[in-house]
Amino acid sequence: MAETRPYHPAAADEHPNGGALVADDFDDADSALSAPEQSLQSLRSSVLEFQQENGVSFPEFGDTHSRMMILKSSVLRFNPNMWLLTLRGELALCPKVHGANRVLDVGTGSGLWAIDYADLHPDAEVTGVDLSPIQPSLVPPNCFFEVDDVEKEWTWTKSFDFIMSRVMAGSLADYESYIQKAYDALEPGGYLELQDLHFPHGCDDGTMTEETAIYRLGHLFLEASIALGRPLNPAPTYKGIMEKVGFEDVVQQKLVWLLGTGLGWTKEEVLVFCTSVRAELKSSAIHGYLPIYVVYGKKPEAPVASPSDAPANASAGAPTTA
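RESULT FIELD:
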């Protein structure tokens, strides 16, 4: 299932910001990503078979729900700059942002988060999993990608000490089941971090009224996601779910992305509506934002056995002879 695609990692001094990354254009054709052709492995051809729909590529095996996940991923995950700026150059906020050994990036999308983590931490083994093989063909030697459906049974046999989940809202039918799987896949002391968007858009000063296209856009996204059984508004529940399944020291941070300077619609109607949205996004009159949630927590350390937990015959010692 995993496909290894190694490359010669860039020098460490390409990340001069004390281990934090600097926002860039993340061009996959970057000359730093180079390797001899014989060191590469291609994904199986059957996995690379796509259907084209409105300019987006979908795998042949995908159903409506997986298509929504891939479409959302292609829109929201291909721009890591927003996340780097939001997190002040860091890839995560939990203690495992540095120093993890086995890392899983769930819904890896373009694979850029996994690649960046693997590049910054060459001693870590980083696995990215997604429904679609849209990751770059050249990756660090400690970075691996797998094509799988995380709503099904997780089959990894070796535990992780850090699991990253970025922008999975709108991708899952059962978020408690998903977080439970992550908990079970972590080793004691390991961390899960959920970074997500929350719809609809917010506004604190009344400038985004119900008549604005941006207001309608956020609510239409949410209505469509609920109709498909993959809601776009679960992020405020993550902290409670994590505590319920057993995580401890759960931290929630709410941030914002500022806006500005399924429905049965025809393609033409969508294009006209998008024109209105773009016009409002360019205007400084509407002070809307997209809520961002970052939630992380630790799986409890393995309990230390007390003397009272020892078997009854453990203190009896070896039998003596007369």
